[in-house]
Amino acid sequence: MESEHKQLSLIKSLFIKMGASEKQAVVMASQLLKRAGQIAAERKISKIESIEALLKQVIEAQQES
């Protein structure tokens, strides 16, 4: 599994490509990773699965706007 720092960097890059500023992207990526950890614990799934689900929701929401 990738380190949390690497995950943060990759997700931050995605948010920047979606139009967020660097500062916003860091905050959003951090919040997404925190929530992914919570979801993983609640649903007894891997953190990677919860990150994937959250990123799908973000991308779908962005495409709808």
By DSSP (H or I, 4+ residues per run), the number of helices equals: 3
What is the count of distinct domains?
1
Q: So what's the overall shape?
A: globular
Helix content: over 70%
- The residue ranges in which pLDDT falls below 50 over 5 or more consecutive positions are none
Q: What can be said about the biggest beta sheet?
A: none
Distance between the termini: 33 Å
CATH top level is: Mainly Alpha
* Known CATH architecture: Orthogonal Bundle
| H and E string | HHH
Nearest-integer average pLDDT: 94
Q: What brief labels describe this structure?
A:
0% strand, mainly alpha, 65 residues
Annotate the secondary structure layout.
Layout lengths: L3 H14 L4 H22 L3 H18 L1
